[in-house]
Specification:
SNARE binding; ENTH_VHS; 295 residues; 0% strand; single chain; ANTH_dom; golgi apparatus; mainly alpha
Length: 295
């Protein structure tokens, strides 16, 4: 960052802190701590992603009565900023908050509840639209802009998937989580499963549409985005695989699967970059895709 940009950022951060101090004169300590953590995680003056310290603190509020305030604070920060670095950090925070939802811990997960992904989604997709970002002249921010625009589209799709599935697409390798999800899927109609698969494949297509990364000068905010996306990739593979296996058991016309299989095939080469995270699962998944295509 240039000296003027850095000074301007420091002044903005200081002004935000002063405003926060005034606003919270009569607030509880917890409320002030949440807003301070959001400010410190999304400063104007750092080219680094949100500190794990603040991410973990904010995630710790997700299962408490302070969840709505945390979500509202992050979304509000995103809505008012014109700084591309601040916007990228807000999106990373939103992604982390959604992923912290433990929707596979019980038979019903968070279905029908006012979970934090619902809190974000119900405020409208417009909250994730960023049309007036100040790009600046640094190579860092110029590279970051297309990633921020891509990332907000990615998160919109991610939130839509959470609404369609009724749970955050964040399934782990644990046997119990897979058992519960398989049980849920077996109770769905075939049309419902097709609809869910369609949304899940949308996420793969958005991953496929990601901007190029300049490997000679890695952007660490972009690296954090990619890291979170890679985790989602593994979860979505599990979710699609469970649904394909269920469809394979049914007597539905195999031809109905062809369009979605073709869409997946178009993404395969680009997605292969992430197969190192789950090589056995990745192989099983694409073998299943080939089997379904052969049918």
């Amino acid at each position: 960052m240039g000296k003027f940009t850095t000074l301007s950022g420091k002044l903005k951060d200081r002004a935000s802190q002063m405003k926060l101090n005034v606003v919270h004169l009569c607030s509880s300590v917890n409320t002030k701590n949440i807003d301070e953590a959001i400010l410190k995680a999304t400063t104007h003056t750092s080219n680094k992603p949100p500190s794990d310290k603040y991410v973990k603190f904010l995630q710790s509020t997700m299962a408490t009565c302070y969840c709505p305030q945390t979500i509202s604070g992050i979304v509000q920060r995103l809505c008012v900023t014109t700084d591309v670095c601040v916007a990228s950090k807000c999106l990373i925070l939103i992604h982390n908050m959604i992923k912290s939802e433990k929707g596979y811990e019980g038979e019903d997960g968070h279905r029908g509840t006012n979970s934090h992904r619902n809190l974000i989604y119900n405020q409208g997709e417009s909250n994730l639209k960023l049309d007036d970002l100040n790009v600046g002249s640094s190579c860092f921010t110029i590279e970051l802009v297309p990633w921020v625009q891509w990332y907000k589209k990615y998160l919109n799709i991610y939130l839509c998937i959470a609404e369609v599935l009724g749970v955050t697409p964040n399934i782990k390798e644990k046997f119990e989580e897979k058992r519960l999800e398989t049980q849920r899927v077996s109770s769905y109609t075939t049309d419902c499963i097709f609809k869910q698969v369609d949304f899940l494949v949308n996420l793969f297509e958005q991953i496929n549409a990601r901007p190029e990364t300049l490997m000679e000068r890695p952007n660490i905010i972009v690296i954090r985005m990619i890291g979170l996306m890679e985790q989602d990739y593994v979860s979505v593979i599990r979710l699609i695989k469970i649904r394909f296996e269920e469809l394979d058991k049914r007597t539905a016309d195999p031809a109905e699967l062809i369009p979605v299989l073709v869409r997946l095939d178009k993404c395969r080469e680009s997605l292969s970059e992430f197969c190192w995270r789950c090589k056995p699962l990745d192989k099983e998944f694409w073998d299943l895709v080939l089997k379904l295509k052969a049918n």
